[in-house]
Amino acid sequence: MNRPLRVAALASGRGSNLAALIAARDAGRLPVEFTLVGSDKKQAGALAIAEAAGIPTVALSPKDYATRAAFDAALFDRVADSGADLLVLAGYMRIVDAAVVAAWAGRAINVHPSLLPKYRGLHTHRRCLEAGDTEHGASVHFVTAELDGGPVIAQARIPVHPGDSEDDLAGQLLVEEHKLLPAAVGAIASGRLRWQGGPMFDGRPLTHPLTLANLL
Questions:
Q1: How many Cβ atoms from other residues are within 10 Å of residue 152's Cβ?
Q2: Domains in the chain, start-ordered, CATH in brackets?
Q3: What share of the chain is helix, strand, coil (3-state, %, to 5)?
Q4: For FRET with 137, which of 81, 100, 159, 213 sits at 20 to 30 Å CA-CA?
Q5: Which of 163, 175, 170 is nearest to 125 (CA)?
Q6: Number of H-type helices and E-type strands within the chain
Q7: Are strands 32-39 and 5-10 parallel, antiparallel or unpaired?
């Protein structure tokens, strides 16, 4: 590719992972061009972060559409119209219609706060603590119709200490997410990580999750 990778992002919340991506780009570590940041919440902090960085934004309300599928199609059409090569779900909190996801096979990734396949869905820190785990982590994975079920690209791990709360784990893990997600996007931008019927890394099928060290 003779141009930067064109990246769009969707986010529902404050946008800390989006901010990490923008910071990596601004520091020269991430050769990408952001085409759009979209949200299902007009007050999402991610939109303000994008606007401050000069990135186009769009916010659509699910209430304005008759079905979930119609909303998903409308939002993802905006992403397609932006010319994005890659879609990053960076704290996007909606389950996306399977048919809409299928059109982005191999071109959409998500960051999730657990060591997948453990703890798909919500409340991952609570579930980790309730299970008595001694280790927690974050995963970046390709998006498929199965909730948090696509092939895992990379993972970061943190220890769980006695007395840790959900907030403790969330704060510690965000630090790792903010390194892992830009590194994964960077591997796609450089061509090291590709989708060819499945994830390929450095020309070989990806058989187990990468670490941050593998990606750098």
A1: 20
A2: 5-122+138-155+176-215 (3.40.50.170)
A3: 35, 25, 40
A4: 100
A5: 170
A6: 7, 10
A7: parallel
State the pLDDT at residue 2.
Answer: 80
Q: Report how far residue 213's alpha carbon sits from residue 159's, in angstroms, rounded to the nearest whole number.
A: 18
What does the pLDDT read at residue 69?
Answer: 96
Number of Cβ atoms within 10 Å of the Cβ of 105: 14
Please list the rounded mean pLDDT of every run of 10 residues in the chain (216 residues). Answer: 92 97 97 98 98 98 97 98 98 94 96 97 97 98 94 98 97 97 98 96 97 95
Query: Could you say which of 112, 125, 141, 178 is catalytic?
Result: 112
**With contact defined as beta carbons under 8 Å apart, do 10 and 35 qualify?**
no
Name residue 63's amino acid. Answer: K
Helices 166-190 + 16-26 axis angle, to 10: 40
117: preceding bond cis by omega (within 30 degrees): yes
Provide the annotated binding site.
Answer: 15-17, 68, 93-96, 110
For residue 115 the two structure tokens come to 């060591």
Question: Checking DSSP bridges between strand 5-10 and strand 86-89, what pairing results, if any?
Answer: parallel
pLDDT score, position 74: 98
* Tokens found for residue 109: 């990734």
What residue numbers does the annotated binding site for (6R)-10-formyltetrahydrofolate cover? 68, 93-96, 110
Instruction: State the pTM of this model.
Output: 0.96
Identify the three-state secondary structure at position 173.
helix
Distance CA 141, CA 34 (A): 20
**Confidence at residue 1, expressed as pLDDT on a 0 to 100 scale:** 65
